[in-house]
Amino acid sequence: MPVLNRAAEMQEEIAGWRRHLHQSPELGFDVFETAAFVEEKLKAFGCDDVVTGLGKTGVVGLIRGRRGDGATVGLRADMDALPINEITGKPYASTVPGKMHACGHDGHVAMLLGAAKYLAETRNFSGAVAVIFQPAEEGGGGGNEMVKDGLMDRFGIHKVFGMHNMPGLPVGQFAIRPGAVMAATAEFTITVRGRGGHAAMPNGTIDPIVAASQLVGALQTIASRTVDPIESVVVSVTKFHAGDAYNVIPETAEIAGTVRTLKKEIAKTAQQRMRDICVGIAAAFGATIDVQYNDNYPVTFNHPEETVFAGDIAATVAGDAQVHREIQPLMGGEDFSYMLEARPGAFIFVGNGPSAGLHHPAYDFNDEAIPHGVSYWVKLAETALAA
Question: How many CB atoms lie within 10 A of CB 358?
Fold first, then answer.
């Protein structure tokens, strides 16, 4: 089955929804206008149930098939934007300073709405489809909040699937892999406390900037000298704050960043090694070092059977040669991981073409991907819930 004719026919309408959402980006759980737009559309489509406020601001639409008995499959899209100033110059560019859809969640929402409209019209399946619109993927853990709020049990979801666009992957192609497909994330803040003083008399101080500078380099040895080179780990220092004057050595310096891993044991090793390094640097400089280490999203783990199924569905839409089934894992994080911990399922990527990268101020979702994403969702639901 190639791209659905109906999906192609709806492309402009769906793109219109996407561009409307693109102009009014919202962050985290504060996706009130976006959620209201989704709710309005789902009710207009004739969904049997539309539930709001799940996981704070999430929306779920339930579409029952021609035969109501049977399993329920969940299809998920994320709704939130990023705190970035857009530079695309598009006529539908963000109208909200400091906020933009730089990760394509506007496209994800629009494609799932398109699939919901089609499925509500045709209902060519048994059981039910739950279309899940989630807030706060970009660091807020909205997926976890929806799961904790009873998403899976309330709607009787047996399996759950997610999809994300991928810049650089040609439009019309899909990519997936079994097992770990995206990394677990952790965040750290390290505070170095020394003894401040006059910059011209450093011998009378314990300089926290010098100690923290040593830490930045030493932390890179976690990847280069602690973890097996075959394994995957990223340690990135992304913040360094210290001092306010040219001639004053400050009392404190602070660095912060992220750790990404694909295995729990590697995550534990990285955390312990970070603490050990801080103890050593503190002793060497006579400083006091405090480490705050917070685990964030778990590994996004595709279940084997569901991954094969998702890949096969993508192949019916795009052709088998256009489906990459063994891509390298990505070290970005994704809170669909919480849903995959709660139920079997798989997370797939759909091509966005030669666009700017995700989280870049020049990024824009490629509307040519819409028919492919909608067709994938529809075929997946109809096949999983064959009437």
Answer: 17
Is 5-182+300-384's fold the same as 184-295's?
A: no
List the one residue out of 81, 80, 116, 126 whose CA is nearest residue 100.
81
C-alpha span between 6 and 183 (Å, rounded): 36
C-alpha distances in Å from residue 288, one per residue of 89, 253, 320: 48, 11, 57
d(CA 154, CA 166): 32
How many other C-beta atoms are found inside a 10 Å radius of the C-beta of residue 228? 9
Show the tokens assigned to 207.
Answer: 């300089």
User: pTM (2 decimals)?
Assistant: 0.95
Write the CB contacts of 164 (distance below 8 Å, at least 6 apart in sequence): 104, 108, 334, 347, 348, 349, 350
Strand extents, DSSP E, 122-265: 126-134, 157-166, 174-175, 179-182, 184-193, 197-198, 233-242, 248-249, 252-261
CATH superfamily placement of domain 5-182+300-384:
Zn peptidases (3.40.630.10)
Domain 184-295 CATH assignment equals 3.30.70.360? yes
Domain ranges of the chain: 5-182+300-384, 184-295
pLDDT per residue as tens digits for the range 215-240? 999 999 999 999 999 999 999 999 99
Instruction: Indicate the pLDDT class of residue 68, thresholds 50, 70 and 90.
Output: confident
pLDDT one-digit tens code per residue, 70-110: 899 999 999 999 999 999 999 999 999 999 999 999 999 99
Q: Are 182 and 329 in contact (CB under 8 A)?
A: yes
